[in-house]
Amino acid sequence: MKLMQSWVESANSATTDFPLNNLPCGVFSINGEDPRCGMAIGDYILDLTALEAEGILQLGAAALFDVPFWNEVMEAGPAVWADLRAQVTAMLAAGASKRWIVEDHLVAMDSARLHLPLMVAEYTDFYSNRHHATNVSAILHGTKAALPPNWLHMPIAYNGRASSVVVSGSEVRRPWGQIKGAEFDAPIFAPSRRFDFELELAAVIGVASDRPVTVAEADAMIFGYVVLNDWSARDIQAWEYQPLGPFQAKATATTISPWIVMQAALEPFRTVTTAPEMALLPHLCAPGPMLYDIALQVAITPEGGAETVVSRTNYAEMSYASAQQLAHHTTGGCPMSVGDLLGSGTISGPAQDARGCLLELSWGGKEPVAIAGGARRFLEDGDTVTLRGAAQGDGFRIGFGACTGKLIAALADPYAR
Ligand code: CA
Questions:
Q1: For the chain, does the N or the C end have fewer beta carbons within 10 angstroms?
Q2: Are residues 150 and 191 in the same domain?
Q3: How many CA atoms lie within 13 Å of 197's alpha carbon, on the beta-carbon side?
Q4: H helices of 65-174, where?
């Protein structure tokens, strides 16, 4: 697929995340005004709230952009999603006759503040990457390492907290929690010493369901994807997770990219997994390619220092796609809502520098990872973690914008009032 030319010159660059082919969905504000919905185009944001209010963009009888989140558009359904893309593409394409009316509604992205693009209904996080699951098992269990027996048959997950989800750029405070070292008989209550990131992609559910759905039906329910950082306190996690899974270790924050890339923009990049095939029960089998060729990377920038990319991997390394995860999610009768967020699970590749978290990169803290001006076993206060993802087309890329978060020091006393 070729680059679609736009009259917005910066959208025609081979290095922008936001060519006309992309049109990702975000929420922005300028000068402290109320947040509004927009789509990214090159170095600008197209103000859809204003375009709709002026009648230039029309998607039906009721206004969809009079609220500062994308849930109402999602609820309007896939036909409206397609109509929106068609109308905005026509407005922004090179030679567009409406250029003179649309031009006034472009906002420079560097003058805007970006907000959460959706109201997250509920958040579930999966564990569906074979390299990650195998590495974690080896780190925790040594020579007895093995994938959990259920892993090869279903996408394993835990129910997370929608309230923990924050937009890129939000600071993340190092949490306190219960920690028990192997050398002690009892736990202590202290700031986490093994705070980590997890590189993930997450699906945004745009169609509700109240019954079990097939993988094909699930795929059609996905509105789009965001890049996600599932911040994890490894020491808190190690003590609390048995037998019911992570709880406070994952409750501090979950950072998502400011832009939801619509599934339609990713269609040309559909692919099958690069991981070994699995013999799944019929209700979880994929009817076709369900993953996307999306290059992903993680960088760490210490306070006042330079950025170092510490991991490079690809979404195609997943063993279960979001559609399979969503289908599995509904099997027991769990209703799914518009705005549900489904994290893929940490995305690692087979290479040492393709591991998606520090737990794996430093092999449980044993092998420090070199970064500019130092090394990391786990994150230090002041570190900024930046996740990036993009599908590479012919002369263009479909990106998510940076997903960043800075780790700040734990409170001296979390109960001080
Ligand atoms: Ca995770």
A1: C
A2: yes
A3: 33
A4: 71-76, 78-92, 99-102, 130-141
Q: What positions carry a catalytic annotation?
A: 132
| Token pair in block for residue 18 | 């936001």
Residue 417 belongs to a domain: no
In a domain, 414, yes or no: no
pLDDT at 170: 98
Q: pLDDT for 364-390, tens place per residue?
A: 999 999 999 899 999 999 999 999 999
Pair 20, 95 in one domain: yes
Looking at the fold, whether 129 and 109 belong to one and the same domain comes out as no
- pLDDT tens-digit readout, 247-269: 999 999 999 999 999 999 999 99
List C-alpha distances in Å: 40 to 18, 118, 119, 401.
Answer: 6, 15, 19, 9
CATH of the domain at 38: 2.30.30.230
Identify the weakest region by mean pLDDT among 92-106, 133-147, 292-306.
133-147
Chain centroid to Cα 187, Å, comes to 33
Query: Using 50, 70 and 90 to split pLDDT, how confident is the model at 340?
Result: very high
Whole-number Å distance between alpha carbons of 72 and 88: 17
How far does the centroid of ligand 1 lie from the alpha carbon of residue 45, in Å? 30
The span from the CA of 123 to the CA of 16, in Å, is 29
**Residue 200 Cα, ligand 1 centroid: separation in angstroms?**
7
Amino acid at 144: K
Count of structural domains, the chain: 2
Residue spans of alpha helices (H) in 12-54: 48-53
Between 300 and 141, residue with greater pLDDT: 300
What pLDDT does residue 70 have? 98
Tell me the one-letter amino acid at 367: E
Ligand 1 centroid–CA 128 distance in Å is 9
- For residue 10, pLDDT over 80 is answered with yes
Computed on alpha carbons and rounded to an integer, the radius of gyration of the chain in Å comes to 21
Token reading at 181: 């070292």
